[in-house]
Amino acid sequence: MTRIQRNVSITAVVLALVAAGWWFTRQPASEAAPQPAKADAAQPRPALTVRVAAPEPAELPVTLAANGNIAAWQEASVGSESAGLRLAEVRVNVGDVVRRGQVLARFAPETVDADVAQAKAALAEARATAADAAGNAARARTLEKTGALSQQQITQYQTAEQTAKARVEAAEAVLAAQQVRGRNTQVLAPDDGVISARSATVGSVVGSGTELFRLIRQGRLEWRAEVGAAELGRLAVGMPVRVTAPDGAQVQGKVRSIAPTVDAQTRNGLVYVDIPSVQAHKGFKAGMFARGEFALGKSVAQTVPQAAVVPRDGFNTVMVLQADSRVQMRKVQAGRRMGERIEITGDLPAGARVVTEGAGFLNDGDLVRVVDAAPAEAPGVAK
Predict the structure, then answer these.
(1) In terms of DSSP bridges, do strands 75-79 and 211-217 run parallel, antiparallel, or are they unpaired?
(2) Which of 348, 346, 354, 350 has the alpha carbon at shortest distance from 318?
(3) Which residues are paired to 89 by β-bridges?
(4) Neighbours of 358 (CB within 10 A)
(5) pLDDT tier for residue 39 given thresholds of 50, 70 and 90
(6) What is the average pLDDT across 4-29?
(7) Strand 368-370 and strand 48-53: pairing?
């Protein structure tokens, strides 16, 4: 073998050894490379970053909800007391606020004025006749002892005197009646209130007793709440009530009276709740349907932020944080609300902490990462 051939063989052996050494040194590194991925798989990442809080006691109002109709406290029917007179003027319309004694309408007074004048003339004639009869009776009494007149004639003069006096009294009564008719040509408001209906028409001739206006006395309305027989015993006169109109307007009223009977068909009793001035609360009208809540008192309850309660499959649920940073879904009953907090009742463990932010994005058993939240004081906390 020549020197050149030996050099080539030596070079090939060296390259083979170098290649083998590189292969053996590279192999452990390649096998160790997947190990970080296995470590990541052994430690799953949290599904969500959340905030948690423990349920807090709060003093919440106890209420009783009911429905009912709004009606006038009392309605006055204002009618005509004069028959056969023409309505000459109507001064008010529906919705007007009126005062007691205010003129609402006026009838044409010509016919009544003529009757009053005739009654005055008849009274004057009766008084003149009575004066003449009294004079004759006085003269007859002076002649009674002289025998110039018989006893029968004297009695006739005295009877004529009494008859004339009675005719004067009758004429005075007729005049008084005609004067009353004259005053009745003006239709007056019987009380303060608001005109709720008007049937008076200018130019019409109405009979006695015909209704011309309806008046909500003193502008007062009432809510007639229908309450079940089992709940009536919890209510009392003077109890505050919050009434809500269909448009959302609210007003504070109070219980005026409770019906002594219960409807045999519905088994509900009526509770009458006073509503203040009609004009001050435009959203409330007689005949309107409304709902309300009777304030029965207060009680202490466990509350959580409203965001912690999530509806799922027809139930209200909360996510309870476990010791291993996973969450467990628990069914709860949602109750009263105050501000941003809601009452819950359910089988929660002692010292439970519920997810207050992000609960709607979690499923039962999810791993979470908890961040601290600034503590918020529950409203009305019992101390």
Answers:
(1) antiparallel
(2) 354
(3) 106
(4) 18
(5) very low
(6) 55
(7) parallel
Q: Which pLDDT score is estimated for 236?
A: 92
Report pLDDT for 9: 58
Confidence of residue 6 (pLDDT cuts 50, 70, 90): low
Tokens of 58: 């709060």
Between CA 60 and CA 380 the distance in angstroms is 7
**pLDDT tens across 111-127, in order?**
888 888 999 999 998 88
Given the candidates 3.40.1190.20, 2.40.420.20, 2.30.30.230, 2.70.98.10, the CATH classification of the domain at 48-60+299-370 is 2.40.420.20
* Letter string b/e over residues 228-248, b meaning 16 or more CB atoms within 10 A of that residue's CB: eeebeeebeeebebbbbbeee
CATH 2.40.30.170 domain range(s) in the chain: 65-73+218-298
For residue 187, give Cα distances in angstroms to 71, 85, 158, 210. 25, 12, 46, 12
